[in-house]
Amino acid sequence: MDDVLITGMGVISHLGRGVDAFWKGLSAARSTPTTAADPFARMSLPLMYEVPAEDVPAGPERHGDLVLGRGSRLAVEAARQAVADAALEGVAPDRIAVVIGTGMGDSGLHEDWRSGTGPEGGHWSPTFSVASAVGSLFGAEGANSSVSNACAASGFGLSMAADLIRTGEADVVIAGGAEAYSRVALACFNRLGAIDPVRCRPFDLHRQGTLFGEGAGMVVLESASHARARSAPQVYAKLSGTGWSCDAFHTTAPEPTGAQISRAMREALAEAGADGDRVGCVIPHGTGTQLNDTVESQVLNEVLDGGRDAQAPVYSLKALLGHTGGAAAALAVVAAAQILHRKTVPPNIAPDEQDPACTIRLPLDEAPLEGEFVLVNAYAFGGNNVSLVLEEASA
């Protein structure tokens, strides 16, 4: 079975536009949420990590009759970067597929229309048209799929993209996730009482919930044989293992024993051929909600305890970006590929006081990567769990 390689990357987030800005932001380990710039955000805590106004793409505003919302525009921008990075010119269009995970799609566009602030005279557009917009704009004539199972969407999407390559359905897949500001999502978590009034602070003893962020992370996945045949300019990493599980324990709460998230992690590691002591870094789901952080911490220690001398370092990405919903796993995969490519684990934002129930290692200083693999976790409402394993690779 052909290996699945990452040959291009693109990103737009609270840290700015482009992979270099992303890595610079990770290395600086400084981030602050702001009040949502929305006059209709009439809720007690309208805090989030927004893409800076100067980095938000002005377009494309539409593609044919299809009006594109902020979610689609973020996805198109990140895909543009990834496609240019991979130098995909000359690849047969029918061998290129698109898979994008998004929990809210272009729901913000529909919210603007209902409030009278949307584009005038716009042709009605479906909420989940993100993948078709990207596929059409980049001439991808293979399968075009949007995955929308909440906060694990792009994790499932990336594993589906890898399967398209492994089964021979595509040579190249533009894959990732995108999530833009949505009043519905922010109001939902406000109503649940799951918004932290200070910042997103996973694994902190004083955490009181999560905070939303927005952005898009995209990668070009490519079969190793195809990458070699066209002399791909670079290979960042190999997507070598995926694992899915569903506990269906509760609509919004994680299953408290962690049995099913353990299953997803173990399946991904087994598929990658990775023992726990060879994992050099973990990018957790770690949202800052009480039960999620505690259960994931406990399971990580169980799964990765391979007789190693020290715990694998955990890199808490959401402490910097907020919880980017359906884009979270894709942004984590971009971070993981950069960690492998640069052989460096960025510093964490220091918790005010680490929760003693979350016995994981959160290094506060940049450090060399020790281990061949990076584990990425993503979980979602309804008990949708996915783990991905990346490793260093060459074409």
From TrEMBL:
One of its GO terms (biological process) is fatty acid biosynthetic process. SUPFAM superfamilies: Thiolase-like (SSF53901). The keyword Transmembrane does not apply. It comes from the Bacteria. Keywords: Transferase. One of its GO terms (molecular function) is 3-oxoacyl-[acyl-carrier-protein] synthase activity. SMART domains: PKS_KS. Residues 1-392 form the Ketosynthase family 3 (KS3) domain. InterPro entries: Beta-ketoacyl_synthase (IPR000794), Ketoacyl_synth_C (IPR014031), Ketoacyl_synth_N (IPR014030), PKS_Beta-ketoAc_synthase_dom (IPR020841), Thiolase-like (IPR016039). Belongs to the thiolase-like superfamily. Beta-ketoacyl-ACP synthases family. PANTHER family: BETA KETOACYL-ACYL CARRIER PROTEIN SYNTHASE, POLYKETIDE SYNTHASE-RELATED. This is 3-oxoacyl-ACP synthase. It comes from Streptomyces violaceoruber.
